Amino acid sequence: MANIQRAILSWYDQNKRELPWRTSKNPYFIWISEVVLQQTRVDQGAPFFYRLTSLFPSIEDLASADEKDVLLAWKGLGYYSRARNLHKAARQIMEMHDGVFPTKHTELIKLAGIGGYTAAAISSISFNEPVAAIDGNVVRIVSRLLDLPGPVESAQTAKVIKEFANEILSINRPGDFNQGLMDLGSLICTPKSPACTECPLMEVCLARANNSQHLRPVKKPKKKAVNRFLIFKILINQGKILMEQQQKGSIWENLYLFPFDEHHSEEAFLSKLDLENKVLIDPSLHVLSHQRLNYAVLVSENKPPIMHGNWLSLDEIYDLPTPILVPRILTRIENQLAPLF
Ligand code: SF4
Predict the structure, then answer these.
(1) Is pLDDT of 340 > 80?
(2) Is 14 within the bounds of a domain?
């Protein structure tokens, strides 16, 4: 194990990525960066890290902000539940820990939205606690090092990975070691083209020895994404558009969206569209991680104001927390809408 530790730490010392949040060990910044980077690439996430930390430079600022402002700062990143949890956890830290960031993994995982990986990243990097931070990179590296044939989602394989990751962890430099593995996974042991000849673990990697690195990690087949069929309605009255805040339980909870009808089959969706004569966007596809949104967009002018919802100008809509689909739709229909304003 000592040779793996030495190899990773010395590789990290020479090759670590210069990332904006690595200039400090402040747990608040480490936390924001980790949440931003969940399911987001570093180059896409960095501007959001800057935006969030300049709007909310401290945990007190985040906790006292309106949820709407936090969602707005998050706009464009998707997965808004992460922003809601970020806000909720900031309030928990203020209320339960007097505004002081918990230092232990066991305390951190009690906060909203902080799972085992994020808790380990914060506690090891900021507080030097020896806990392995097991993300997709580490799962991939360990499953290759040990040439594991079982699906990494299975409890048995996950246990082997967790035990091994904690066994090889450096006790003296756990934060650097965890970040070393993250960087190795991003730069060398990549999902599709691992650069084994440049890898500091080349000599001890069983998958490389067995030439099975492209077969690892083994994953269970993904569940098929659900198809949804939505017709969005752009209702316009006196230059304003009706927007509705989405309810609890919706994938867009608390975000603003055009009113829409949902159809349960492609056939019903298409036959409804056949009856309409003001179709602005023909059937299109917007893919989310677990859903395929088949949608079309209709327009209707001079609607008498409806009491529920919010009648807003285009500028006001761009300033709202909305799913990314809203600005995408508006961009596509800008020219067609212009004469109506
Ligand atoms: S030798 Fe290749 S497969 Fe093994 S850990 Fe290194 S990059 Fe990954």
Answers:
(1) no
(2) yes
pLDDT in tens, 2-22: 789 999 999 999 999 988 888
In this prediction, residue 237 has a pLDDT band, given cuts at 50, 70 and 90, of: confident
* CA geometry: angle 55, 93, 21, nearest 5 deg: 45
One domain for residues 171 and 114: yes
Ligand 1 centroid to residue 187 C-alpha, Å:
11
- Which residue's alpha carbon is nearest to atom 5 within ligand 1? 141
Q: Give the chain's length.
A: 341
Give me the CATH number covering residue 285.
3.90.79.10
CA–CA gap between residue 269 and residue 83 (Å, rounded): 32
The best mutation among 3, 140, 141 to test binding of ligand 1, ranked by most ligand atoms within 8 Å of the C-beta, falls on 141
For residues 231 and 284, what is the distance between their CA atoms, to the nearest angstrom?
10
pLDDT at 302 over 70: no
Ligand 1 midpoint to CA 85 (Å): 35
* The last residue of a domain, from among 165, 180, 215: 215
Quote the CA–CA distance of 122 and 6 in Å, as a whole number. 22
Q: How many domains does the chain have?
A: 2
Residue minimizing CA distance to atom 8 of ligand 1: 189
Same domain assignment for residues 107 and 242:
no
Q: pTM, whole model, 2 decimals?
A: 0.78
Q: What is the domain range of residue 153?
A: 2-215
Per-residue pLDDT, averaged over 269-281, amounts to: 87
To the query of whether residue 18 is one of the catalytic residues in this protein, the response is no
